Amino acid sequence: MAARDDEVQALVEQLSAQLDRSVLVDDASLRLLAYSPTLGSEDEVRKTAILTRETPRVIRDLHFAQGIANASRPVRTAPRPDVGLESRVCVPIRCQGALFGYLWLIDADQSLTDADCEAAELTAAEIGTAMYRRDELERPQREHELKLLEALLGPDPAERETAAHELSAQELLVASAHIAVLAMRPWRDPEQELPTSERARLGLALDQFRRALPRRQSLSVVHGDHGVMLVALDGRHGTLDELATRAQDALDQAFAEGPVRIALGYSGQHEHLRDAHRAHEHARLSLRVSGALPEHGTPAGWDGLGAYRLLARAAETPHARELIHPGLPKLFALQSKESLVQTLEAYLDNGCDTKLTAEALFLHRASLYYRLQRIEAITGTSLKSGADRLALHSGLKLARLVGTHPALRRTNAD
User: Fold this and answer.
1) Rounded to two decimals, what is the model's pTM?
2) What backbone phi and psi angles, to 5 degrees, belong to 108?
3) Are 89 and 76 in contact (CB under 8 A)?
4) First and final C-alpha spacing in the chain
5) Computed from CA positions of residues 129, 130, 135, 140, in that sequence, does the dihedral angle turn out positive or negative?
6) What is the pLDDT of residue 177?
7) Which family does the entry's similarity section mention (predicted)?
8) What's phi and psi for 191, nearest 5 deg?
């Protein structure tokens, strides 16, 4: 255990002895950082957290639903005997306005006094200070890593080669491992830069997630419009898909109180560190798909994008909107309660199967045929033509990626 973690552990054990009860500390994503010997009551959730070093997803969802991420004072959480959860007092760990984690005290019989809660708050403040100081002490090394990572992802081949050499020579990443890149952001307009406050939250969330990973497995940075995590994959700590899912989960919890969802895209595996810039490009394109096409799901991996690889690249070309079939903007402009755009997209998504489409839209088959005829007339296409169907289908998806699809306008208005 590193010295900085020893300080947190000592504070936990000191409070446990003072209150004569068990104490546990999680990071902001509810992954275990420190815990005391068991004193007094214990439940299955605490046992599981100690054994696995993290809180089960269902329990995390229950805790975050009770507002702990926004709290500045202790919060009493409700018991759930059906999942082995006793009532607890949760004390947020904060310093300089940043949330670093949570201090937990099991209190099934509600025997904690006001003085006990005050002692827990004082300890949480000390732990927050220790964690903030840890970050400050690590800042020079962190800035050095950021400089190398920015060069590794940058446009200059010589700088990329130099950065890759220095990262390997200084053993900042696991040697002889494959690499991949994850890209993530709170999703709004893909062209909009993140506000300063969200950049800070995203950077802190990435730092906290990295600390839950083995040493030398990852580096992270926040660009103007998204966060980036470079990961080394040695095969001993799960697959890339599993790592991406864990990162998605941690970021969802870090932004749990906000109305915006977190989109995440990730590259495939690459053999050499010097290929990180290409992995970053793939991750960024995957991020665009996961953000603009919720039905595709997040996290979205480059290897599973299929035709969206081509469409995501097309969305980033100059004048990308000119690639959309000219009949579609006419259809978009006439969007009405009949939802012709929705009908066309469902029809094409269902492989032009009228039975499936009518069932999905709760339409009589005759109504569906009428709408399809109107769509053909408005767009100047024939849905019997494979070329026209391809142009319309790809155009609808490209319209989502560039932000002109009517469904996106309705979502933003809401």
Assistant:
1) 0.74
2) -60, -35
3) yes
4) 48
5) positive
6) 78
7) Belongs to the CdaR family.
8) -90, -10
- φ and ψ at 349, to 5 degrees? -60, -30
- Give the fold, CATH level 3, of 320-413: Arc Repressor Mutant, subunit A (1.10.10)
Q: How confident is the model at residue 38 (pLDDT cuts 50, 70, 90)?
A: confident
Spell 379-409 as b/e; 16+ CB within 10 A means b.
bebebeeeebbebbbbbbbbbbbbbbbbbbe
Residue by residue, DSSP assigns 63-100 as HHTTTGGG-SS-EEEPPBGGGTB--EEEEEEEETTEEE
pLDDT confidence of 261, banded at 50, 70, 90?
Answer: confident
Q: What integer is the mean pLDDT of 19-23?
A: 93
* Domain 154-315 class in CATH: alpha beta
pLDDT band at 367 (very low <50, low <70, confident <90, very high): very high
Does the pLDDT of residue 216 top 90, yes or no? no
pLDDT of residue 64: 86
Angstrom CA distances, 264 to 25, 59, 227, 249, 296, stand at: 28, 23, 9, 10, 12
For residue 384, the one-letter residue type is K
Length of the chain, in residues: 414
On the CB side of 276, CA atoms within 13 Å amount to 35
Q: Are 288 and 312 in contact (CB under 8 A)?
A: yes
Q: Which fold has domain 3-136?
A: Beta-Lactamase (3.30.450)
User: Average pLDDT in the 265-286 region?
Assistant: 94
